[in-house]
Design goal:
Strand content: 5-15%
Distance between the termini: 49 Å
Mean pLDDT: 87
GO molecular function: formylglycine-generating oxidase activity
Protein name: Sulfatase-modifying factor enzyme-like domain-containing protein
Shape: globular
Order of helices and strands: EEEEEEEHHHHHHEHEEEHEEHEEEE
CATH topology of the largest domain: paralog of FGE (formylglycine-generating enzyme)
Number of strands: 17
Low-confidence stretches: 1-12, 285-292
Pfam family, one: FGE-sulfatase
InterPro entries: CTDL_fold, Sulfatase_Mod_Factor_Kinase, SUMF_dom, SUMF_sf
Radius of gyration: 26 Å
Structural class: little secondary structure
CATH class of the largest domain: Alpha Beta
CATH superfamily of the largest domain: paralog of FGE (formylglycine-generating enzyme)
Largest sheet: 4 strands, antiparallel
Strand order of the largest sheet: 4-7-17-8
Length: 504
């Protein structure tokens, strides 16, 4: 058979061609430059797509507290993914099982202990909560109740672990990693799969059968099968992470159903309605608030919270929310995005460092306070892994940032908040204020909170190395590509007019 390349066709098949050079992509005879055939970002396990947009962040008109730390502010949130429900005990125990299996040596005792949730968070000087201390995290009857007693740091580590396990399994499924690698993990410690280590070549995975097969769609420049996957191939997902405060609040409000689209056909969009600020996460729901045919929803509780002093679940024979403490993570009515317990059950960690006036300082798009700009540590001339198998990072230096126009410091947690030695202002944590650089925003209200704290606009904080029986978390993920979702274009596309090429 004679190979031919004519009019963008290679071996009789249409090939992609560069718009700037005219060279074929994925063609060993024309340089071998590879362009991924993956077109869209798949949705990771447990996640729901949240289409971004503009909204009013902060207090509602019904805010009886008139708190000055959540003044209303109009912002825009980019599209992203977020967990359908809070991370449950069974999920966190899965994480601990992996930690205990992989890091089983005596030298890693601190690693295993450092991942444990604080079950003593249930104790109170004037309450009998010992059954919860003993049983809540481990008994199977609480498997799908939200994990609590987890610090912000532990929640962040869980997100990193989850990212690696999801990406590792995807590579195994596609045959790029030998399936035995996820079976034999006992005692391998820092030699486990970690996404960044894999991408930088510091972790060498044993290729699976599909990677060496001729049917492998990934090719080297010479046309032979490529066994290592790059991020440009579109197979690996971005990291799971904690949602920003703005993302969390936007997802909780669930405004998507207030802008119905006539159809899914390209060009038909919603009417860009801007809803009035609602009080609770379930208020904007495609099915409304009650079953109008039978009235069966009228008067029922739509969240798990404390109705008043001494009333955490109502009266025997008529329990109002059927939960004295937490409830299963998929209890109660989901909001417009299909998310459970964005109001009530447990407060949830967000990524942001807390400042009372953050809403006045934020950028208009993707607001967030807590940035520390890191870069891969290549002191030895190449990336290196730490004792846990993760690529080492370091803060960017002032010299590296000096010539930039968008930032001059790597640690910008305190940017424009007055906390600067040059201005003679410092926080003095524990002396003049409870706020520090370790204070992280928590949102959503809990089983032991009054209804006021269930409003998505309210905000509180807890130190990142502390935990509580009323605080849990859920994970989020960046969205790549079109903000409208898979299969949708970015920008508005108009029909091209035919040019008049006739000569006068």
């Amino acid at each position: 058979m004679v190979a031919s390349c004519k009019n963008g066709k290679l071996f009789g098949k249409k090939t992609q061609k560069s718009d700037v050079t005219g060279w074929n992509y994925n063609d060993k005879n024309q340089g071998g430059y590879q362009v991924s055939k993956e077109k869209e970002q798949r949705t990771g396990p447990g996640l729901v797509f949240v289409q971004g947009g503009t909204f009013t962040m902060g207090a509602t008109e019904e805010d009886v507290m008139g708190d000055w730390n959540n003044a209303p502010r109009r912002v825009t949130v980019n599209s992203f993914y977020i967990d359908k429900s809070e991370v449950a005990n069974v999920h966190y125990r899965e994480y601990l099982y992996w930690i205990n299996t992989v890091f089983d040596g005596d030298e890693h005792q601190a690693v295993r202990n450092g991942a444990l949730p604080d079950t003593l968070c249930w104790r109170s000087e004037l309450a009998y909560n010992e059954p919860l201390v003993e049983y809540y995290f481990r008994h199977p009857s609480y498997n799908y109740y939200p994990v609590v007693g987890v610090t912000w740091k532990q929640a962040n580590d869980f997100c990193l672990w989850r990212s690696d396990r999801v990406n590792e399994l995807e590579l195994v499924k596609r045959g790029f990693i030998n399936d035995k690698s996820i079976k034999n993990v006992s005692g391998i410690a820092e030699e486990h799969f970690e996404t960044k280590s894999y991408l930088t070549g510091e972790f060498q995975a044993t290729p699976g059968k599909a990677a060496r097969s001729k049917s492998n769609t990934l090719k080297n420049p010479n046309g032979t099968p490529r066994t290592n996957v790059t991020f440009e191939d579109g197979i690996l997902l971005p990291n799971y992470r904690l949602p920003t405060e703005a993302e969390w609040e936007y997802a909780a409000l669930g405004y998507v159903h207030q802008n119905p689209q006539p159809s899914k056909k390209e060009g038909n969009r919603g009417e860009e309605l801007v809803a009035n600020k609602q009080v609770y996460s379930w208020s904007s729901n495609v099915n409304g608030l009650r079953d109008t045919r039978r009235g069966s929803w009228q008067g029922t509780f739509l969240a798990n919270f404390k109705r008043g002093s001494g009333d955490n679940m109502g009266v025997a024979g008529g329990l109002n929310d059927r939960a004295v403490y937490t409830a299963p993570v998929q209890s109660f009515y989901p909001n417009g995005f299909g998310l459970y317990n964005m109001s009530g059950n447990v407060n949830e960690w967000t990524a942001d460092v807390y400042r009372p006036l953050s809403l006045n300082d934020f950028d208009d798009v993707s607001p967030y306070r807590g940035n520390k700009y890191n870069t891969v540590d290549q002191t030895t001339g190449k990336p290196e892994r730490d004792s846990l198998g993760r690529i080492k990072y370091r803060l960017m230096t002032d010299d590296e940032s000096r010539s930039r126009r968008n930032y001059q410091k790597a640690d910008v947690i305190n940017y424009l908040d007055g906390d600067s030695l040059l201005q003679g202002v410092s926080y003095g944590y524990g002396k003049t204020t409870l706020i520090s650089d370790k204070s992280r925003v928590i949102k959503g209200g809990s089983w032991n909170d009054r209804a006021y704290w269930l409003s998505p606009g309210t905000r509180r904080f807890l130190e990142e190395d502390q935990s509580s029986s009323t605080v849990g978390f859920r994970c989020a993920m960046d969205r790549t590509g079109s903000p409208e979702g898979n299969g949708r274009k970015t920008g508005i596309n108009y029909k091209q007019r035919r040019q008049n090429t006739r000569k006068k």
